[in-house]
Each structure stands twice: as structure tokens, then as C-alpha cells.
Write a structure and sequence with these properties.
Structural class of chain A: alpha/beta
Strand order of the largest sheet of chain A: 2-8-7-6-5
CATH architecture of the largest domain in chain A: 3-Layer(aba) Sandwich
Oligomer: homodimer
Number of domains of chain A: 2
Helix content of chain A: 25-40%
Strand content of chain A: 5-15%
Number of helices of chain A: 11
Shape of chain A: globular
CATH class of the largest domain in chain A: Alpha Beta
Order of helices and strands of chain A: HEHHEHEHEEHEEEHHHEEHEEH
Radius of gyration of chain A: 20 Å
Largest interface: A-B, 87 and 87 residues
CATH superfamily of the largest domain in chain A: Type I PLP-dependent aspartate aminotransferase-like (Major domain)
Chain lengths: 354, 354
């Protein structure tokens, strides 16, 4: 702490991202990266952009990428899309632009741990709403005065998806508040709320290129919603950093979203591996929550999660463990390749025997 | 405006960046890009990074890049360096972390027009301090109670540099306030205050890769200062977006700062062209402020600046004109290649004759 720090910076409790260790030969199943590489067409497009034009600023509005995203979903105009430097930046702007009101905002007690961090950054009051005993979101619990609602769907780190009917019920019950659905993991099994944005002016849906598009290394996220909500995000962005997306990220993301075949093939592969991994973990005695994401959330009735995570680590396998109420006995395991998941299961089998 | 907007977003007055037109064959002298391409070693390093590793998150701390920057300057440790997604993001975080106090902050009346925008975003009071009649910053005018001081050096859009002795006087006169020196253009002729960071714990120096490193398309900026100031920026960054720099930007910027030869050669070329351009503009009757940047700021005693900018535009040449008090008769002209500057001068000669 220093006398030069603002009161804001003194009060912050920064987010701690999953570890990015620089060790070779690691089975890295801790930050929900895609085990498959990005679309070969995206890599080709990136190669084509490595030239002297990098001396020039990018298009501050990422026009081509917005058009490509609108075309991917259909029935959307480019001005219903907001682009950011990863979905974390999109979420940050959304908290300040759309969730900072007099009433506290609501989000689940077990959820993406960045949400309370944003609240502290922007001085936003919040209340957490407990998930039910099976870790499902109960829509009825959100029918109280609030300044906005946000949750991931599928939820993180549980992987459990809320059906579209539940989201629609939330939107109808809260017509005066913005409802933000954070769909980082939606392409691995959930129903996207993008289908509802033209009917509900209070709905903002946030996506990322880091998971199903396999471009965590490029930092691209976006939001879809009514043009009034997108305008609010644009105003914040243009008061913060006019050029959030570099030329390479724009071009790579555009090619990635245009390659539907690669997207379909790789996400189906992840879904298949998840099914097998779930079955294998269950055969070892784990309880595995029903996942619609590219990770599973599992606990063993007889083995301590933190100890298991440590034992895995000693075998070169990294998973994520959250030392938090209600979920401290769970491991969050990214769905890797079949080989990586087999290595994980074999290691767990050894660890449980010991 | 929408009922969903926060009070913050309602009050914003977003920055308007220089135009990025998508026309071919334009002589684009409006956003101070480098006329030369980036280091060939940077392009090579970028090509080497286009592979499946893009599926993985980048190093959230940009460790390699910080080490390379520390090595470039010497006498600095990597933890005295903060990396951001362009220097605009670095500045934004610095306003919130280090300039938000009870007293108003100070900056020149004529300066980078993003500063008041940040103040509105973060609800920071400010007072502008008039430059003198020759558009120079008078250090004595900053000796009054303040919550911090920020200015570009060389100043934008004037191009006039404050000598290092002036900066040291400012630091000594304001030991309890953070002084931020925004050195976006320093490599084209000014004396960098990085030389002072180990002596003054209240000094933060901000740099960009967009100008002298010719990588505006990659979005990389950084700050150098005492570790306590850098820690404050890290806390904000980790409460906003843990991974601001993508894998490609990190690698490209690292290779660029390691290529000292390209850096020297291209910045000397820009300086030479600036000298010639200044002489040519003066021969047309322009008054040209003494520039230490990669642009010149010039006015003609008999010709209206806005009309001249429009006439240039009709000839496919874009320069920047600010419709602001004291400077509305100036044109800000980026130093391009010799050919681009010759085209500009020829066009102006025609326009002045007409």
C-alpha cells in the first residue's frame, strides 16, 4: 500500500486467474482451454495479416468481425454486437454501463468469481442468491427488487445449464432490470439466449472466443443485445480505450467464426470426451454434476478434493480447486483430449487406491 | 439514452479517435502512425507464434515482454513495468489507481483530449492549466494543491517537449502527488523521464508501441515507475481483465523492443523528414511549432485551417484538425515518408494559391 494509491485501488480484491505454469509436458486441465487448436482458416488468415500494415491502427469498431458474428447468428444487425478484448473486458464494461444502479444486483452464490471483483471496482452493491441443493439456479429466487442480474449459463464452475424457458421467465419477471447471460461455455451443450435478444430489450448475452473457438490466446469476446444496451457499452469503451482489438485478433476471430465446420467438429469432440470422462469418473466413485460445458465438476465422497488436486499436480496434471464454501470438495476438470482425460483418470485411480 | 443505462454511462462524453477511413491510395497523415513498417524481426516472431498454442491463454503478466523492456532501458527491474492493451488502457488504469483523490488533478489546457474523458469515466475532478503564449508548459503554474499531474511529453497536439530539468522541477515541487508523463512521442526527439523513475517514487512514465515501434495495429503500451505505483496498476488490471495482452502482441512487442537497430534507423528517418517538412511548410508561410514528435502542428496566418484540411481531403490527403479554442487555426500533420510529405506540400501549395 502506498500514499499514492486511490481509495478505489485500496479497496480492491483482485481476481486470481487459474495458473498458467510454464512447465513442459503438463496435462493442463485447469483453465478450460480447448484441447484442439483454432480453425486452420483462422491461422491462415492470421498469417496473411503479418505485414507492414501492423504499423496502422486497427478499425476501432471491428466492423468486419461484427458483420461476421451477425451473419453467424442470423437475424442480428452488426450494431447489436459489441466487441471487447476478451469477454472479461466486455463484462467489466457491462457492469459499469448496465449494472450500476441504486438497487443491489443479483448473482448466484456459486458462480464466476470475477463478478464480485467487478462490483468492488465500480462500487456496485450485490446480493448472492443461493443455488439449490443440487446446484441449480432457481428462477423464482430472483423475483425481488434488483439493479440487474448476471449469471453464467452454463454456470461456472458447476457446468449446469439453465434451459431457455428459465431465462425467458427471468426476463419476464424483471422487465426493468438488465439480465446478463454469460455464455462462455454455451456451445458445449446449452441453449443460447441469443435467440431471445430481439424480443427482450433488457437481455445482454456475452460470448468469448476463448473456449469453443479455441482462441484464448487472442483475447476476443463480444456481447449481443438491443442496440440501446450496445450503445451504452460503446460509450464506456470509447471513454476507456478506443482500439481494444488489435488487427490480428480481429482477423483471426473473423475467420474462426466463419469456419462453421471446424467449430462443429471440435465442439462435438469435446462433448463426446466429456461423456466418456463423466462415466470414468463415476466408475471411480465420483459424483459428477451434469455438465453442459467443456469441464466437469466432480467430488468424491471419501477423498478430500484439495489433497487429490495436489496429488494430481505431483503427477504433472493440473486441475482447479476452489477453497470456497459449498464447493471445497469439488475438482473442476477441463475436458481435454481423450488421451489427457485417460491420463487424468489413470492418475486418479492410483491416488484413490493409495 | 435508455432506462437501463447507469448514471455513469449517461454522463460520459466519449473520446473521438482520428478517422480510420477504409479508402485505398490515401495519404493518411492524421493519426501519427509510423510511415515505416515494424521491425522485420517482430514480423518474423509473430509468424512463429501462429500455431495451435493460440488455444491457450497468454501469460497474464507478460513476463518476457517486461524483461525485454527492463533490459532496453537498463537499471530497471521487470516489476517496475506495467503492460497494457495500448497506452490508452494503461492511462485509464492510471487515472483510476493513482489520480483519483480529493483534490483536482492538473493538466494543460491544450493536451491529449482523452484526459478529460477519463476524468468523467472515473468521476475525477480536474483543472486545466493554460500553456503559455508559445504553447509551452510553465512548470511554476503547477505549484498548487493538486491530486496529481498528467501531461504528454512531447505535448500533443503541439509537439513541444519539456526538458528533463523541467520534469524534475515538477516532481520536486509535488512530492505528494503522482506525476504522469505520457511519452507516446518521446523517441522522436525528447528526453525520457524514465531516467528519473529510480529517484522519484511519485513518477509514472507511460510509453506506447504504436509510434516509434510502428505497431499501432498490435495495441501494446506500458508504464514505468516505482514498484508501489506499478502494484496499484496491477490491482486495477486484475480487477478488470486478467489477460490484457494476447500471445501475438506479447511476442511481437518483445521482438520489436529487442531490435534496437531498426528502432534507431526508422526514428532517425522520421526526424530527418520532419526537419524537411518543417522547412517546406515554413516556405509556404506556415508557422510551425518546434516539434519533438512524429507530427508537426502548423498554422497559416492567412488561410483557415478547417478549409485547408477539407481541401486536402478532397485531394486524398488526411490531416487532423481540432475545432478547439486556441488551436482551431492549426493543422496537425503526421510525418509520413518523404514522398507522402512531398505530396502534402505540393497539395498545400496548390490550395494556398487558389
Amino acid at each position: 500500500m502506498s500514499r499514492f494509491w486511490s481509495a478505489t485501488v485500496r479497496a480492491l480484491q483482485p481476481y486470481v486467474p487459474g495458473e498458467q505454469p510454464k512447465l513442459p509436458n503438463l496435462v493442463k486441465l485447469n483453465t478450460n482451454e480447448n484441447p484442439y487448436g483454432p480453425s486452420p482458416l483462422a491461422l491462415e488468415a492470421l498469417r496473411g495479416e503479418i505485414n507492414d500494415s501492423l504499423r496502422l491502427y486497427p478499425d476501432p469498431e471491428s466492423t468486419r468481425l461484427r458483420e461476421a458474428i451477425a451473419a453467424f447468428f442470423g437475424k442480428l444487425a452488426p450494431n447489436q454486437i459489441f466487441i471487447g478484448n476478451g469477454s472479461d473486458e466486455v463484462l467489466a464494461h457491462a457492469f459499469l454501463a448496465l449494472l450500476k444502479h441504486d438497487l443491489p444486483i443479483l448473482f448466484p452464490d456459486i458462480t464466476y468469481s470475477f463478478y464480485p471483483v467487478y462490483c468492488r471496482l465500480y462500487d456496485i452493491e450485490y446480493q448472492t442468491v443461493p443455488l439449490d441443493d443440487n446446484f441449480a439456479l432457481r428462477v423464482a429466487d430472483y423475483s425481488r427488487p434488483n439493479g440487474g442480474i448476471i449469471f453464467p449459463n452454463p454456470n461456472a464452475p458447476t457446468g449446469i445449464a439453465l434451459p431457455l424457458a428459465g431465462i425467458e421467465a427471468l426476463l419476464k419477471a424483471n422487465p426493468d432490470a438488465v439480465v446478463i447471460v454469460d455464455e462462455a461455455y454455451i456451445d458445449f451443450g446449452g441453449e443460447s439466449a441469443v435467440a431471445l435478444v430481439n424480443q427482450y430489450p433488457n437481455l445482454l448475452v456475452v460470448h468469448t472466443f476463448s473456449k469453443s473457438r479455441s482462441l484464448a490466446g487472442l483475447r476476443v469476446g463480444f456481447a449481443v443485445g438491443h442496440v440501446d444496451l450496445i450503445d451504452a457499452l460503446q460509450r464506456v469503451k470509447n471513454s476507456f480505450n478506443s482500439y481494444p482489438l488489435d488487427r490480428l485478433a480481429s482477423v483471426g476471430a473473423t475467420a474462426a467464426i466463419e469456419d462453421r465446420e471446424w467449430f462443429e467438429r471440435t465442439r462435438q469432440a469435446v462433448i463426446r470426451t466429456r461423456t466418456a470422462l463423466t462415466r470414468d469418473l463415476e466408475s471411480l466413485g465420483f459424483e459428477v454434476l451434469p455438465s453442459a460445458a467443456n469441464f466437469v465438476f466432480a467430488r468424491h465422497p471419501k477423498h478430500d478434493a484439495e489433497k487429490s488436486a495436489l496429488a494430481l499436480r505431483q503427477r504433472g496434471i493440473i486441475v482447479r480447486h476452489f477453497k470456497l464454501p459449498r464447493i471445497e470438495q469439488f475438482l473442476r476438470i477441463t475436458v481435454g483430449t481423450d488421451e489427457q482425460c485417460a491420463a487424468l483418470v489413470a492418475a486418479l485411480r492410483e491416488i484413490l487406491k493409495a
